[in-house]
Specification:
single chain, alpha/beta, TIM Barrel, eight-stranded parallel barrel, 8 strands, binds 1,3-dihydroxyacetonephosphate
Length: 251
């Protein structure tokens, strides 16, 4: 049985005071709710330690937004897997389209990051998605398939228990434009199908595939109702406790 997951990618938002306040608001609004999904937040790296402390004794898990592929060394400004583990982080987001486009992270580099994260025992939320141009040219399956294959298909079957997939069409991120539930379902089913073809049915059935891109309380129910959509990776709406809770309760 695959996990249902709602994860909030806070991106470069919230200072320490705001981090603490948002976590407290979230804890309060989740207090009386019976959640049947994992709830994850990914604050900016400088506040990860604080977030771990503040979420202790709650259902909220904390993820990092990125990490470097090397174990340690002369990489000014970077953060290693061991440093994440050291402050109590067990999950890392890799491959977000903002990292791919704004920081030139290639499929090959991401494969290296994936290897390091798994070697160190981290769980990965691995993001991928097509651009608007790919979608218009009807290249979206090819592009998404290529991103997933190039960064993940070298892995042994056993590694897949630590992989969560997140389909985030670039044209739907922060634009207010969401993929329709049918478009999300179609892509998620395609991803599951290529995973099954490369590995087997068990791996394909057990991997959680999240959808990301302008998910809001008003559209979450419909998107999450689709068979192959196992949750969401939420940007903007995760910065507000009541919106994020609204999405969590969509399950
Ligand atoms: P929005 O929900 O703001 O569109 O962002 C999605 C996203 O990029 C999550 O990683």
């Amino acid at each position: 049985m695959r996990n249902k997951i709602v994860a909030g990618n806070w991106k470069m938002n919230n200072n320490a005071t705001q981090t603490k306040a948002l976590i407290n608001d979230l804890k309060a609004s989740l207090h009386n709710i019976k959640t049947n999904c994992r709830v994850v937040i990914a604050p900016t790296s400088i506040n990860l330690s604080l977030a771990v402390q503040e979420t202790k004794d709650s259902v909220i898990e904390v993820s990092a937004q990125n990490m470097h592929q090397a174990s340690n060394g002369a990489y000014t400004g970077e953060i290693s897997a061991d440093m994440l583990l050291d402050v109590g982080i067990n999950t890392v987001i890799l491959g977000h389209s903002e990292r791919r486009t704004l920081f030139d992270e290639s499929d090959e580099l991401l494969a290296e990051k994936v290897n390091t994260a798994l070697e160190k025992g981290l769980e990965i939320i691995f993001c991928f998605g097509e651009s608007l141009n790919d979608r218009k040219l009807d290249n979206h399956f090819l592009e998404v398939g290529s991103q997933v294959k190039k960064s993940l298909f070298h892995l042994p079957e056993a590694s897949w228990k630590n992989i969560i997939l997140a389909y985030e069409p670039v044209w739907a991120i922060g634009t207010g434009e969401t993929a329709s539930p049918e478009q999300a379902q179609e892509m998620h089913a395609f991803i599951r199908q290529i995973v099954e073809k490369k590995y087997n049915k068990e791996v394909a059935e057990n991997v959680s595939i999240l959808y990301g891109g302008s998910v809001k309380p008003s559209n979450a129910v419909e998107i999450f109702s689709k068979e192959d959509v196992d949750g969401g990776l939420i940007g903007g709406a995760s910065l507000n406790a009541s919106d994020f809770t609204g999405i969590i309760t969509a399950f």
